[in-house]
Amino acid sequence: MMTPANIQTETHICQTPDETFELGRSLGTRLEPGDAVLLTGGLGAGKTLLTKGILEALGFDVDEVTSPSFTLVNLYKTESADVYHIDLWRIDQSADPRFAVGLDEITGDDRSIVIIEWAEQLGSYNFRGNVFRTRIEGDGDDPRNVTIEIEPAR
Q1: In this predicted model, what pLDDT tens digit does every residue of 61-101 receive, in sequence order?
Q2: Is 141 exposed, middle or buried (0-12, 13-18, 19+ CB in 10 A)?
Q3: Which of 37, 61, 145, 146 could pair covalently with 12 via S-S, beta carbons 3.0-4.6 A apart?
Q4: Quick one: CA torsion of 57, 76, 24, 135, rounded to 10 degrees?
Q5: How far apart are CA 94 and CA 92, in angstroms?
Q6: 95 with 101: CB under 8 angstroms?
Q7: Would you kindly state where each structural domain of the chain is located, as residue ranges?
Q8: Any idea which architecture 8-151 has in CATH?
Q9: pTM across the whole model
Q10: Number of neighbouring beta carbons within 10 Å of residue 125
Q11: DSSP helix/strand/coil, 113
């Protein structure tokens, strides 16, 4: 599959959960309102752990960050942004996930940063800002191979 020239690709190997958290923290320092982080990876791959790192970088207490598996959307307000942490794992396959979580309303918030777990359920969507398509591979005690494709804002 060819990658358009304006998309940057980064690859990282995280040997430990702490390294996955630190990668999230590094990513969080690069985010601005309008941006989206689209996370894919199996159960236990580290999607929520990466999200915790992102939120720590944005000044939020990571002890308050939980997976939104049952609530679908968690909102974390920081000084610089309203961070919407969305989990599409439990969305009914026949439902439109954009409508189910109110994505149009969320992205209409000028302060929003969107983090979506199980983003492969989303399909195509035009975000306002940069999109960080983040794939985490590995499970159990194995290292995590993390690929981040950065699509600049249109």
Answers
A1: 888 887 776 678 999 999 999 999 999 877 766 667 777 77
A2: exposed
A3: 146
A4: -160
A5: 5
A6: no
A7: 8-151
A8: 3-Layer(aba) Sandwich (3.40)
A9: 0.90
A10: 16
A11: strand
Q: Helix or strand or coil: residue 114?
A: strand
Do 112 and 37 form a contact (C-beta atoms < 8 A)? no
**Which tokens in the block code for residue 30?**
């690069």
Which residues does residue 39 pair with via DSSP β-bridges, in sequence order? 117, 134
Per-residue pLDDT, 1: 45
- Using CA atoms, how far residue 60 sits from 39, 46, 68, 76, 128, in Å, is 19, 18, 16, 7, 23
Positive or negative, the Cα torsion across 149, 128, 32, 53?
negative
Residue 103 CB-density burial (10 A; 0-12 exposed, 13-18 middle, 19+ buried): buried
Q: Within the chain, what is the greatest distance between any pair of CA atoms?
A: 40
